[in-house]
Amino acid sequence: MTATASNVDVLVVGAGHAGCEAAAAAARLGARTLLLAMNLDTIGHLSCNPAIGGLAKGQLVREIDALGGLMGRAIDATGIQFRMLNTGKGPAVQAPRAQADKVAYRSWVKYAVECQPGLLIRQETVEEVLVRNDRVTGVRCKSGAEYSARAVILTTGTFLRGLMHTGTKKEVGGRGGEAAAEGLSRCLIELGFELGRLKTGTPARLDGRSIDRSVLIEQPGDTDPEPFSFSTERIEQSQLSCHIAYTTEETHRIIRENLHLAPMYTGQIESEGPRYCPSIEDKVVRFADRPRHQVFLEPEGRQTHEVYVNGLSTSLPREVQDRFLRSIPGLEQAEVMRYGYAVEYDFAPACQLHVTLESRQHEGLYLAGQINGTSGYEEAGAQGLMTGANAALKLKGEAPFLLDRSQAYIGVLVDDLVTESPREPYRMFTSRAEYRLLLRSDNADQRLTPLAAERGLVERDRAEHVQQKVKAIRQGRESLDRTFHEQVSTARILRRPDMDLEGVLALGLLPELASLSADVRRQIEIETKYEGYIERQEATVAKFKRLESLGIPDHLDYRNVEHISNEARNKLSYYRPASLGQASRIVGVTPADISVLMVVLGR
Amino acid sequence: MSDPDTIVALSTPAGASRRGVIRISGTRAIRIVQRLVRPAAALEGTWVHRPVSLSLGGDWPPVPASVFVMRSPRSYTREDVVELHLHGAPMLVRAVIRHLTALPAVREAEPGEFTRRAYLSGRLDASQVAAVLDLVRARHVEAARVAASALQGEATDQIALLRAAVLRLVARLEAHLDFTDDDAAQLSVDELTRDLAHARETCGRALESLDVQTFDESIRLALIGEPNAGKTSLFNRLTGRDAIVSEHPGTTRDVGEASLDYQGWRFTIWDTAGWRTTTDELEQQAGSLAREAAERADLRFEILDGTAERLPNLELDWAADALVIHKVDQPRRLDLVAVHRRAAGRPVLQVSARTGFGVDELLSTARRLAEAGSVERTASSLQLAAGHEGALRDIETRLGLAGQRISPAGDELELAAFELREAIERLSDLGAPVHHDEILDVLFRQFCIGK
After folding, report:
1. Complex-level ipTM
2. Measured between CB atoms, which of B140, B176, B444 is closest to A276?
3. Cβ separation of B113 and A599 shorter than 8 Å?
4. Is B182 in contact with A598 (Cβ distance < 8 A)?
5. Where are any strands of DSSP class E within A315-436?
6. What CATH fold (topology level) applies to the domain A8-156+182-200+345-454?
7. What's the gap in Å between the CA of A29 and the closest CA on chain B?
8. What is the pLDDT of residues A347-379, one digit of tens each?
9. Which residue of B133, B179, B185 is in closest CB contact with A55?
10. Full-prediction pTM beyond 0.80?
11. Which of A53, A70, A294, A336 is most buried, by CB atoms within 10 Å?
12. A70 vs A53, A105, A158, B236, CA distance in Å?
């Protein structure tokens, strides 16, 4: 099915991580898709740190991959340093992270969307979303061109009225060296969207040749790197190291003496910055007793000397950045290639969206990524994939594709977004997931690929592959239950602390397990060792599902619901939860209110 | 979609006599009660109503009770329903509820859940259910009010402390899990162990304070009246205590408290300080303590000095439950007609602390008033206390289990976190919910993490 620019089902505005996943997912489902971007050279650009994954984010990437998304394969192909994090802790909190070759990464993504059948790409700056009778009809561009489409997905990142701060200097733009999208904010306000403002920051980039790595701590990649994607056999490429440096008392003194020039402290920036990604100004002020802070020097690619200075996000003036950077051992001669800055941008609180991330007010208009108040490539990619899938499914007249909190981090993400009002860019943490022990990065394929295949998001053969894997795991576990060593089942032996599957296999009783792939063996080990906990967690999921399955019609007028408290009435009217489960998670709604709702809804 | 859980609740109506009615509804209702009831055969048949004894195990002697069985669909919820009627001693009621809810797929009912099930099964129609739901809401508000009064002071403080301790522990634990060692080099398992120990101690103290305070299910009777009306002599006579009595008005400067048992009822008698306008600061303070105590009491008896000529005016915002003419062993000068006019149908009693005359009648009147339903506190605070204790015990257990998963290796910390998540859920049952964002707040305030 070829799309022509005049015959579009799903039109995606923006080609960052949300936009590319959205466009690819919609096209995979057969929608004629058009992807519009301000600059085709920055498709799939890693605007901030050159890395994918990390704790909770690595889980998201695996989920995106299990649903047929791009991100996992992109980083596997273009990563330059791979590390599995938290290997000393349990499987539920382990996650992959990799440094990317920035240019290679975005080329890979650009080529992937280019190659996607049914997807057309064009360079345009969208200024206006066209709506008739609360139904989206297309977009109008700065060039004067108009495109009609049956669904529009906005993924504007930090470009909505983006404003960059370096010291007292302000510059309009969504990203270093790039223009902001001014028209679209105005258009969203005219369409009745409530907009808020968020802030985030980025550190300086240095010329790697000016860094004295001999005094720094080297951090190499894993010797046996584990791929992100379930479809990648192994990581073949050679790896580069990152390096760790430390700030000094002198660094802190320089920062303290220049705080009056930091926009966050002068009041020039009023919006909230993220607590989890504090600027170095923040760290020095709030943790004054700490003699030093860690700095990670991360190469931005193979074909560049540019190095990302992770941990030193700042909006101080350029000359102060130079001075404090050079007070760090190893960076005495450092040459800055790009300076750090803070960026403020508009976002639209996602309680204005359905759980499919479609606007409540304007049918066919979807929002994904930072425009919904999130932070991070992975969070953006996950939302993009879900909006692309749902826009396409709706046009086909099919039921929405939804994931709940017990199925995926993506479910946690979307549910949090539509039931909370963010005061900082939303970032995923494993602690946000109630069912963390079930939502592991190692089992995302088992959790999600069958669901995705059912809806046509991934190819059948991938789902079959997962089915075979699940079967092999089940058979392996049965063997462990059936096989005894000195009257103790091998499953029980495996559950002993400090025992692993290798140890059990060494007893020589289970030859059928020895031939299984490492991946299957690991699943057998995890599922057996944590069986008790997994069962307990599954029991709580069953309870959760009950309330979750009780839908609330979107048109329910809470003003007419008697017997609930005023606070509950106000909050429910504002957030308009899709289910009783969602209603119960809204702060201020009591179990008594839920009881009343159940009766009102006749459930 | 029907709920597979069997639910249990204490459903003693407010103001009823001292009986606990535990109602159980659901597919497992009969089976789980069968484990408890001797003879087990007592539950056979439909609409059974039989005397039985409950075997709770442990140190409990067999407990006499009546059992009512209403088989599906001929019950309120159209599920199998069993009611256990037993003596309403809080310890006992709690023990039975704990016993039942410890079983799999059995839990305490949510507010209004019996009615909800009745409605869903078609037993009640929407208009009937509306009335019940109003009651559910009212009970929720009432529970909050009772919580505020019953848990005033130590227990509430302890729960706030427990919440803070758990929050701190969870924040530290999540910092371990949500950040790598690179990011969070300053974290150590030792501190985690210390935080856990602190949380467990706090939980223990909260349980103790609950035992002392909220489970006082006696009838609280406040003696109020003008200075020198003889409240303290009467108090001493009732309770057999020796509080200071003097001829000088205003000697009682605090609220005296003592308990006594009378015909199977437990009374807590409060002797309150002088009720008069005074410039003496200490006495003023005692006066306001007295008013506060009187407001919290279940019953308030106004003591009148029978030898005084004038009927005092205490400027009360409420009416006393009975008027007591005291010192009737001496010549009476008080106008009886005036007393009865003020009583307006409420009991008027005549007593003498010195001779003991009328003391018995005073107590039986108090008992009658309590039984007649003028004591509304009892049932709801009993329910509340049982719920609180259950929640605290659960938290105690979860903290213990979490402790087993915190080791220097730190390889099972996510399992500890799993246990603590359940502890946090129980905190909301104590009226001290923890929102996830607060955990992040504490985490980022305490630890410098994040790149």
Report:
1. 0.89
2. B444
3. no
4. no
5. 336-338, 341-347, 365-367
6. FAD/NAD(P)-binding domain (3.50.50)
7. 32
8. 999 999 999 999 999 999 999 999 999 999 999
9. B179
10. no
11. A53
12. 13, 11, 21, 84
